Amino acid sequence: MRQVITEREEVHRMSSKNKTEVLIDGKIYTLSGYESEEYLQRVATYINNKLAELKKLDGYARLSQELKSILLELNVADDYFKAKNQVEMVEEELAQKDQELYDLKHELISTQIKLEDAAKELEAKGITARVLDMHTIKPLDTEAVTACINEIGKVITVEDHNILNGLGSAVCEVAAEMGKGVVKRIGVQDQYGQSAPYERLLAMNGITVENIVKTAEELQ
User: Fold this and answer.
1) Which of 109, 122, 190, 209 could form an SS bridge with 127, CB 3.0 to 4.6 Å?
2) Is the pLDDT of residue 13 over 70?
3) Is 178 helix (H, G, I), strand (E, B) or coil?
4) 15 near 34, Cβ under 8 Å?
5) Above 90 in pLDDT, residue 72?
6) For residue 168, with 0-12 CB atoms within 10 Å meaning exposed, 13-18 middle and 19 or more buried, which class applies?
7) Which is nearest to 145 in space by CA: 111, 109, 127, 172?
8) Residue 109: pLDDT above 80?
9) Long-range CB contacts (< 8 A, 24+ apart) of 29-33?
């Protein structure tokens, strides 16, 4: 038989407290809460572990019960704030990774738009261009590169990366092994890094529609 739980019953079930007997420091206590019994047992185990740690300290046995309680509370609070700091650090790292991923996607889309605009402008001038999105350098899509060299013979690589040891270099290696083809590389020239807004850096390194079109025209 299939059991059907109404919304009211579900709310009542979630609002009712669980009770469970736990053993803390050799004594049995009854804990109650909205959490599961397993969770309440884990809380008791945590307290027992903290007490076991404290009992190993020199002079702990001679402390008054009040001082023992304060020492336990301090240790619990210390664990809490350390865990809280770790969670905040992880959240900050995740937020930073999300921002980096967003920026990367923005850069990729921006570069792709530039290439498509350049291809349209070249087509208007009677120059047919094929646009390939090389999503990885390692592994490099050597089949696509080989096809371009065989069918077109002239390749322009565009990347917001140093032209050395990047996409341009990888494509040049394929062309060199084939013994044919002309490759022009557009990207960050072999120079020290510069600081500027992203679009400005692209323009400073010739990663623009105008320069792509100019380079293609020079290959004709």
Assistant:
1) 122
2) no
3) helix
4) yes
5) yes
6) buried
7) 172
8) no
9) none
